[in-house]
C-alpha cells in the first residue's frame, strides 16, 4: 500500500502528460502530491521532514512551471531535491557529527553504528547520483524522454532500496540479543 502511495503522483503525472501536456501533468502532480501528503498525515499523524521538503519543492517548482509556462522548473525539481538531500546528509555527519538516518530510523531499526554510517554514505552517494542522472536527462534529452525516464527511472530507487534491505538484514539483531556487533565481527558474517 505504501509503495503504491509513493508511486501514485508520478504515475498520474505520467498519464496526464501522455494524454495532454507537461503543464496539465504538472498540475496533476501538484494535486496528487497534496492528496498523498494528506493521506500520509492521516495515517501517521505527522509528516516527516522529507515529506515536507518534497511537498514544498513540488508546489514551488510546479507553480513556477505553470505561472511562467516554462517546463524547465518541474524538470529540475528532482535534481534540486536529490542534491539537497545528499548534501544535507553529508553535512549532518561531517559538520554536526550526527547521523540523520539513525536519528530518523534508529527507533525502528536496531543496527550497529558502523552500519548506520555506511547507510548514511550510501544515501549521500545515491542522492548525488540521482541528482546527476536527472540533470543529464534534463539537459541531454527531450521532455518526452525525461517524462519516460521519470516513470521507468524508478528502477534506480527500487534497486537501491532492495540492496539496502539486503545489506541491513545481515545486521538486524533479535530483541533478546544485546551484544554489540563490531565491524570486525561483520567481516566474519557470510
Sum this structure up briefly:
The protein has 190 residues and is mainly alpha-helical. It has helices spanning 2-19, 22-44, 49-68, 72-94, 100-105, 113-140, 143-152, 155-169, 183-188. It is globular, with a radius of gyration of 19 Å.
Structure write-up:
The chain has 2 domains: 1-68; 71-190, no CATH class. Helices cover 78% and strands 0% of the residues. The protein contains 9 helices and no strands. The protein has helices at residues 2-19, 22-44, 49-68, 72-94, 100-105, 113-140, 143-152, 155-169, 183-188. The chain is globular. The relative contact order is 0.10. The model has no long low-confidence stretch (mean pLDDT 88).
Terminal CA distance: 33 Å
Q: Please tell me how large the radius of gyration is.
A: 19 Å
- Helical segment count: 9
Unreliable stretches covering 5 or more consecutive residues = none
Please render the helix and strand layout as text.
Elements: H1 2-19, H2 22-44, H3 49-68, H4 72-94, H5 100-105, H6 113-140, H7 143-152, H8 155-169, H9 183-188
List descriptors.
2 domains, 9 helices, 190 residues
